[in-house]
Amino acid sequence: xxxxxxxxxxxxxxxxKKEVSARELLDSIYQRIESVExxxxxxxxxxxxxxxxxxxxxxxxxxxxxxxxxxxIPIAIKDNMCTKGIRTTCSSKILANFIPPYESTVTSRLSExxxxxxxxxxxxEFAMGSSTENSGFFTTKNPWDLERIPGGSSGGSAAAVxxxxxxxxxxxxxxxxxxxxxxxxxxxxxxxxxxxxSRYGLVAFASSLDQIGPITKDVKDSAILMNIxxxxxxxxxxxxxxxxxxxxxxxxxxxxxxKIGIPKEYFIEGMxxxxxxxxxxxxxxxxxxxxxxxxxxxxxTGYAVATYYVLATSEASSNLARYDGVKYGFRxxxxxxxxxxxxxxxxxxxxxxxxxIILGTYTLxxxxxxxxxxxxxxxxxxxxxxxxxxxxxVDAIVTPTxxxxxxxxxxxxxxxxxxxxxxxxxxxxxxAGVPGISIPCGFTSNNxxxxxxxxGKHFDEETILKVSYAYEQSTDWHKRKPNL
Amino acid sequence: MKISVEYVAKLARLSLSEKERELFGSQxxxxxxxxxxxxxxxxxxxxxxxxxxxxxxxxxxxxxVRSIKREDALMNAPEHTDKFYRVxxxxx
Lengths: 484, 92
Known about the structure:
Radius of gyration of chain B: 23 Å
Largest sheet of chain B: none
Structural class of chain A: alpha/beta
Number of helices of chain B: 3
Order of helices and strands of chain A: HHEHEHEHEHEEHEHEHHHHEHHEEH
CATH topology of the domain at 3-258 in chain A: Amidase signature (AS) enzymes
Strand order of the largest sheet of chain A: 1-3-2-4-6-5-10-11-9-7-8
Number of helices of chain A: 15
Order of helices and strands of chain B: HHH
Strand content of chain B: under 5%
Shape of chain B: flat
Oligomer: heterodimer
Structural class of chain B: mainly alpha
Radius of gyration of chain A: 21 Å
Largest interface: A-B, 72 and 51 residues
CATH superfamily of the domain at 3-258 in chain A: Amidase signature (AS) domain
């Protein structure tokens, strides 16, 4: 049997029934990696030895009938989450040899549940990008078409899930970095409400927007991982002090009578026709399941990309000041301290990171702060209010995740603004801090996956999981696999 | 030109090649022009949002806990002594 094809809930069953051992499951995944990784290039680091140690530890628990929810389950982690003793690079030359002396909260929680760290996945350097082309090491390929990008920045995690090079994965999402690659790779990606999941040990990009979430083969696995990674963490003062529901409980509940908002601003000129048609079909499907579509307006949608790139680059320029060649990371030579700083950062960072640092430094600099940063924070308030107003009349909002299916490598790499506009449907969700999920809802005539985005109220991941599961159970898009 | 790339890059402690200066100059200007869009929005009396979830003064009990070991903190430094990070000479 091809065990590598399994998701978390199926793997849990056969591990507990002793139909397969943790080692055999891990063997199966590593064999799969061996046969497809040359094409896909999802992983930066594969800590094989450590993975087998974790498998043996988990097997003891399973054998004694004490298995935890992830005992023996191989999961891939985006390489911007710190794993103690295992290289964590952010796909940047400046951190190419960084070995974290501490563990991120999310991976600690996965460890408590017995997971196996299968590998660290590729990303756009410091999570800045929408294609993995900004990785300091290499570009990950879309498993559905190797000439195309997998999306980004969590492109390595999404491609690894789509190519069955892991059972599930974690990504991080600042402006769409979980949902857009999940959409382009035909898998499920959830960005939780800001504050739902601890950011401790996540290498900071834009602290008021960053959030960690699951990338999985189906909706149930997304709920399973959410149960584990959510909740207040004393090590992250921005994590919300709320009780975490059992997210799997809502799966299978009816969506009859649920009001689904369709924002007219998201169905725009320039959207791919096949994407639009698939999303409209998905809305009809939800209607046939009893949901009630309601046209709504999110009037400030057109300002989201500009707002986001002011705020995200400002926060990034401040967060990335720490890479100075002193405490960790790469150091270049220089005749004095200043020259050492300048050379270290010039040689350690790639083009997109430099561009964003300069932009953010400029918008925060004396004389420009009010015109850019403060203005963007005010528009952010209006974007947030748009959602609050909409959620007074609807229970969830449905949109395309991305205006197009996966584009070709190199197609947008030369024009940063065009690349930024590929996040047009995902960015508002981060600005408002609400949760959003992308699930497969069709394919283009070129056999490229299309994603449906479902957005919920603050801390109401349950509703979007419920709607996603109802849709998924009545379709079979998620069962299709790429030919590799 | 809105932005003096050379000046801002220096503030950000980045040395740039001539080629990068030119390329970033034109790219950043077109991005900043795009951001001008925000001026269309009336934001009079609108409170800025710095944080979406309203949490303030998150306190914890003042209980000392063990922090990271010195050798672990120095482990990733490009240059260090047994107790300190080492940097190029600062004072002549």
